[in-house]
Hints:
Shape of chain A: elongated
Radius of gyration of chain A: 25 Å
Largest sheet of chain A: 8 strands, mixed
Number of strands of chain A: 29
Strand content of chain A: 25-35%
Distance between the termini of chain A: 82 Å
Number of helices of chain A: 18
Mean pLDDT of chain A: 95
Oligomer: homodimer
Structural class of chain A: alpha/beta
Low-confidence stretches of chain A: none
Amino acid sequence: MNRLAAAARGEIPADLVIHNARVANIFTQEYEPADIAIYSGKIAGIGQNYSGLVNFDAEGRAVIPGMIDGHIHIEDTMMTPQAFAYTAALHGTSTVMADPHEISNALGMSGLEYMFRASQGLPVDIFYGAPSCVPASDLETPYEELDMTAMKSMFDRKMTQHLGEMMDFPKVIAGDPEAWGKILAAGDVPLTGHAPGVSGKELCAYLSSGIDSDHECTTLDEAREKLSRGMWLMIREGASFLDLKTLLPLVKENPLNAARCMAVSDDITARYLLERGHMDEKMRIMIRDGLNPFTALRMVTLSPAEYFRLHDRGIIAPGKIADFTILDADTMDEAFKVHSVWKRGLQVVRDDDVFAVNDAEHLAPVTRVKVKKVPTVEQIRIKAEDSLMNVIGVKEGTVITKTLQVSPKVSDGYVVPDFENDIAKIVVLERHRDTGRFGVGFVKGLGIMRGAVGSSVAHDAHNFVVAGADDESIITALHGLAEMGGGLVVSEGRELKASFALPIGGLMSYLRPEEVCAELAKMENAAETLGVKIPHPFMVLSFLCLSVIPELRITDLGYVDITKGGVQELFVR
Amino acid sequence: MNRLAAAARGEIPADLVIHNARVANIFTQEYEPADIAIYSGKIAGIGQNYSGLVNFDAEGRAVIPGMIDGHIHIEDTMMTPQAFAYTAALHGTSTVMADPHEISNALGMSGLEYMFRASQGLPVDIFYGAPSCVPASDLETPYEELDMTAMKSMFDRKMTQHLGEMMDFPKVIAGDPEAWGKILAAGDVPLTGHAPGVSGKELCAYLSSGIDSDHECTTLDEAREKLSRGMWLMIREGASFLDLKTLLPLVKENPLNAARCMAVSDDITARYLLERGHMDEKMRIMIRDGLNPFTALRMVTLSPAEYFRLHDRGIIAPGKIADFTILDADTMDEAFKVHSVWKRGLQVVRDDDVFAVNDAEHLAPVTRVKVKKVPTVEQIRIKAEDSLMNVIGVKEGTVITKTLQVSPKVSDGYVVPDFENDIAKIVVLERHRDTGRFGVGFVKGLGIMRGAVGSSVAHDAHNFVVAGADDESIITALHGLAEMGGGLVVSEGRELKASFALPIGGLMSYLRPEEVCAELAKMENAAETLGVKIPHPFMVLSFLCLSVIPELRITDLGYVDITKGGVQELFVR
């Protein structure tokens, strides 16, 4: 006779019983005082007087289902999947839906293969979306293009569970065969979208492809239209994008909308994870904002589980996998502090082994291409012309850039950075194929007074990007990046003042989360000595290459502008 | 470039445009004045100024998504799937989830094969559940047993989409390997349950199997417990079971529960379909009961679509299949009258061809076994004994029976029906294998004063059941059933006074819905001439053989009682 059923009936001891729990029930919106019996990694029963081989006294604390992040790019934490998982798990996360498009730009299919391998056996189930836009556009140069055949292969090999965010909404709307081919190659899976500001008939055209979710809404009107058109809404609340408070009225005005909404991270950093948390932080924000905690809980448990068709999780109920978290209080309050965490019935404790530098290396493909073709100071010089110059205008608090037209500062017949007007030079060097191809431009708003800052984290193709006050510092930074095979650098003149190596695709390190934070702090401090005062300068830098966001951007092809549809000239003709 | 996207953008004409629609949106809970553009059977766009090859003016009427019945036994309408589909479609039904366990008891796998074949190309998509309890218990004799290997085969052949109601809850709770094997054979599909009154740890044990829905709740407390344990609730509202009004408070107190609840039919008759309707009738009941019409609409559209993982339907939105209904008003009001219906973008009109008697016959397996071993009057006589006798007690308005102990009326040394106390004789004859095996008992409460009534609709094994006032009438009725190969009969003495043939497995006819109603009315009138005054006497008769419902029942094995776990004696020892 079946032993799971016997454990549910209480006729054989469970593997584990959580006694004196107050089980948060999103359906009754009540706490149910009960024991939770776990057998073979599953919830067997909820009720009174269960006994287990292992017994744990929750002492009247609230117990919630394991939380689910419906959209995150793990690479942005600069941590390995292993380090990420152990850090997030202890904040109550049990499942994440990750879009590995950063590593897939940097290392192609082998990047995805690494992420998949590195995600086995962790205390967080990581399901990957098939990265649907590698490269993000024709204006970027990734390691290799992942086309519809590659997409099909990812699904056939069961490395991916859903379609990763389809960012190339103009092509989908236009009915482009390659974009539609990728969607069809994914098959009958959740098809996640990315359609900032898309509306009306264009939104209809986007959705006619079958795409059924979005995480880019920033206004209530946009969110309401997308919801009304059948899209599941991922409300983003990460390190840089904060949409929860703006969009929560949608759920408050009709709680039934919680069944179609979820709170997601998109981008978070190691520091955010350590200092603020993960899905627990989203719960705190929602509770503080006045949302019914049970309704909020649905948005980080059952709703994402339903959207992603994970029928085995999202609630604490018999037959579901035993993913749950005990809170350090008897209710879900504003503190929402995690007491202890279980994954498939096993208590999650911090596993220092997975943070070890060398153990994980055999899993990872190191950056494959050694960049040798670094330009010279002479090569990146720009001869002055008798016209205005286009400059990338950075605005704090948004990833949108502006196209500025300014009079170039000229010295010895060359255009040079203009400290007084906060205009630095910016160079992007292709690094995946060592073509030596580079683009040169100017950017306003970084606050660089001397030296240069550089990074191999440069969305989405993740080539080398360096912004600096003089050509020598820029070239030093590029050499520093090339030497390391990727990472972050700060240089001044011929001196490499600080560096943080990111050996996995130039995006991730093997360090512990605290070490990642320390390295990042070190790099930001070094940048500050150059005059950089904006918060998160490396993150700002990393977005200047993202060709699919308006307006002016820079890639190894030079200036690009998605709204104008192509490569742009430096000078205004 | 993709033509669906082009139609959505309005750049090429749609196949069909519904102009001046008021689209009922369950998310915004508003009517949106818009055109609906349909291309290639899918919704392309919703918006203003679409034009189509065909244009239909909705004249400001409300438009709702095609409605979905999450649980129905089509056989109980005595209509073929074709006749059922055309009748239901014109009431706004676009999809039904059907459990074919009646025909599967009567004709085994070939019964299921017939249902599947007969359901292709109809204006209602019929998805079948794999009948999980054939026979309903060891106390019944079906045509053939459908075991876990048969279950696997149904799914492998894609004839079934989900697990049909797992009625044998005691075996599931007990962890019986055959019951669990059937569940596991179904795989990762919705696993529909049937667990009347099951609660506490027994409910946990039932759910630990993965079963995740139920349609048997009759009280709020029962419904609330099942909901809280993660079950999707199918609220039943059919011809005989009326649970909507009792259970709607669950949705009214928290509208979010509408995301886990649906309204279903379970059992409805041809007359109910014709006179009252189908899912439209459920909408009327919910709206009259004061439920927000948009919330009610979710329970017959998106919620069942989500539970059954039909990601292509349930809402009117781009990319979904074009199943929708225009109502005869500008809102969803208490009349909720259907104006016109579209299935995959094609208008549904009554197709008299599908009701034709002979055209469909080639699809159907006629009842295969000719019953020759009909007992004689002498064989069904019961010798009196000096003790009390067990009698099946029928109570109007419930399928539950009672075990009565009465002093038998004796004549010439034999027990005979007792008109004064409304006790008739009842005989069940095995019909699937012509074993000649029969059971004899007595039943109180049918009101039979003379003659006999008989039927091959006798849940769930659907053997011949006859109740009568004298042995000769009973044997005449049995011969009548045997001659027809199944159906309904009324006899008196040697005369077969009325009959209604059900050539498809003894359960369904090829007649049009109006003719089915007329035949049933004729049979009920004939029964009334025998003194039968209870409503729906043939339905009441049909449930007396259902071994899985307490208390006393009769099958070809004789008296049975699931609560006592086996065959019961006629006399009290």
